[in-house]
Amino acid sequence: MCMGCIGETKMRKWIVMLTLLTVMVIGTVPVAAQTGTIPEVASANSSFSTLVAAVQAAGLIDDLSARGPFTVFAPTNGAFGTLLNELGVTANDLFADTDLLTEVLLYHVVAGEVRAADILGASLPLTVTTLGGAELVVNVAGGRVSLNNGRATVEIADIDASNGVIHVIDNVLLPPTTTAGDAPAVASTGTIVDVLAGNPNFSTLVAAVTAAGLADELSARGSFTVFAPTNGAFATLLGNLGVTADQLLADRALLTSVLLYHVLPGEYRAADILAANLPLTLETLNGADVVINFNGQRVTINGSTASVEIPNVVASNGVIHIIDNVLLPQ
C-alpha cells in the first residue's frame, strides 16, 4: 500500500472538511472576482434589479462607483418583495421618498472592505458604522453571518468588485431612525382592519380578529395603536403552544384577551415613543399594561418579547406597528 497516497487522501479529506465548514459559517463558497464597480456588478445580476433601481432613484450610482473601497450588504429582489409586502406599498411608493430611500440604502454600505474572514476573525458581535452614520451589528448565528440580531442573514459572501466587496443578504435592513424613530408614515386607505385585511402577511391576525368579533370595534372612528403580529409571529406562537390555529381561534374569550392586549387607546407613533421617558408603561384595551422601550436598534415590548419591525403604518382610525412576536397578557 502506498503510504504517500494515504497521506494525500487524508489531506484531501481535511481540505474538503475545511471547505464545508467555511460554506456553513460564511454562507457560500468564495466567488470569483467580478469586473466593474459595485453598481456594475449588481446591474449584471438580475437578482438585484430592485436594488439597482433603488440606487438609481436615490442618485447614488456615482457614489457607489467611486474608488472606495466599500462593503455592500445587498438585498435581493426577494428581500425587497418581503419589505414591500410588510409595508403594503409598491416599489414606486418606496422610491418616491428619496430621502428615506437614501437613508435606507446607505445603511447597507460600510466604508472599507470587510470580507467574511474579517468578520469571523473579529471579536463578535462586531459593530460597524455605515455610510449613513448609523451602526450595524454583525454576528454569527446558526452557522451564518447575521445582521442586527437576525434581521438579515448573509446568503452569499465575498462577491468582488473593482471598488469593494458585496455580501448578498435575505432581508432589507432598516436603520434605527427608520425602525424606531420618526419613520415616515406609510399611509394606507381604510380602517385598521381594512389595512390588515389588504396585506396577506396578516391573514392569521385578521382571522383572529374576525373570530373574536372585534372587527367592528377596530373599525370604529376612535384612534388606536395596534401592535400587529405577522403570520410568522402567530406560527411561532402556535408551535410554542403545540396547538393549531383553529384551536386557538376556538377559545373566543382567550382570543379576545390576547388581541386587545395588542391595542392601545390613542395614537402612538414611533417618535412619540422615543420622546417619552423610557421605559414607557401603557394600558392596553385588555386592561393589562405593556412596557415599551428602545434597545438602541428597535422599539421593544415587554423586554425582548417582541420588537417593532415596521412602524407607522397609518390607517384612517389609527396607526399600526408590525411586530415579530405575539404578545401574551402578563
Number of strands: 15
CATH C-level class of the largest domain: Mainly Beta
Q: Percentage of helical residues?
A: 25-40%
**Largest sheet report:** 8 strands, mixed
Task: Describe, in plain words, how this protein is organized in 3D.
By secondary structure, the chain is α+β, with helices and mostly antiparallel strands. It folds into 2 domains: 24-178, FAS1 domain, CATH 2.30.180; 182-323, FAS1 domain (Roll). 38% of the residues lie in helices and 24% in strands. It has 15 helices and 15 strands. It has helices at residues 3-26, 38-43, 49-57, 61-64, 77-87, 91-96, 98-106, 116-120, 176-179, 192-197, 203-211, 231-241, 245-250, 252-260, 270-275; strands at residues 70-75, 109-111, 126-129, 135-141, 144-147, 152-161, 164-169, 186-187, 224-229, 263-265, 280-283, 289-294, 299-301, 306-315, 318-323. Strands 8, 9, 10, 11, 12, 13, 14 and 15 form an 8-stranded mixed β-sheet that branches. The protein has a 7-stranded mixed β-sheet with strand order 2-1-7-6-5-4-3. The longest helix is centred in the first third of the chain and has 24 residues, at 3-26. It is elongated and about 60 Å long. It starts with a helix and ends in a 7-residue tail after the last strand.
Q: Could you list some keywords that capture this structure?
A:
seven-stranded mixed sheet, 15 helices, alpha+beta, FAS1 domain, 330 residues, eight-stranded mixed sheet, 38% helix, disordered N terminus
